[in-house]
Write a structure and sequence with these properties.
The chain is of the alpha/beta class and 176 residues long. It has three helices and eleven strands. A hairpin with a 4-residue loop joins strand 3 and strand 4.
């Protein structure tokens, strides 16, 4: 575990000072990371300004960083997979990590179970409602997966209407 002082440069309410976070992955000064902010733990992007091997305050009072800002695409079993977390949906907030992976492969790679994926959702006409009601970490797969993910982003940003208001509120609960 290392400790980092983050400046949330996108948020005018927070950008004047730094905030200490624990990190379970190595970081350097200048790295940008996603971290939960405030009582609702909404993800925001922060820049590392200082690092420390020793905790600068009581560890139980510190939150933890979630992921590096550039870590959204990776390979699993030689299949390209995109993490749905870290996508900006308003001026300063980002979707949560460990909720949804997206791949255009016809079948999801087997190695996803090791990452904690609990549900596999085919990219069909029922995909959005299945994503909204999924209780765990899901993978959306199939040739229409990227298009469905783009629709979900539009819904989260408030730019696309949906007939089902309950689904929209579930998307926001799950991803922000």
């Amino acid at each position: 575990m290392m400790y980092v002082a983050l400046r949330f440069f996108l948020d005018p309410n927070l950008c004047e000072r730094t905030y200490w976070y624990g990190s379970e992955f190595p970081l350097e000064e200048g790295d940008e990371v996603f971290a939960p902010v405030g009582v609702h733990d909404k993800l925001q992007c922060g820049r590392v300004e200082r690092t420390s091997k020793l905790p600068p305050m009581e560890i139980s009072l510190m939150k933890r960083t979630v992921a590096k800002a550039d870590g959204r695409v990776f390979l699993v079993d030689n299949v390209r997979v995109c993490e749905f977390g870290g996508i900006r949906y308003d001026g300063k907030h980002f979707t949560r990590f460990f909720r949804l992976l997206v791949t255009e492969e016809q079948e999801p790679p087997q190695g996803l179970k090791k990452l904690g994926v609990t549900e596999q959702i085919p990219a069909d006409e029922n995909a959005l409602s299945r994503i909204a009601t999924c209780r765990g970490f899901a993978v959306l797969y199939g040739e229409r997966a990227n298009g469905i993910a783009r629709n979900l982003i539009e819904i989260l940003r408030g730019g696309k209407s949906s007939e089902n208001e309950r689904e929209i509120s579930l998307f926001h609960e799950k991803f922000d």
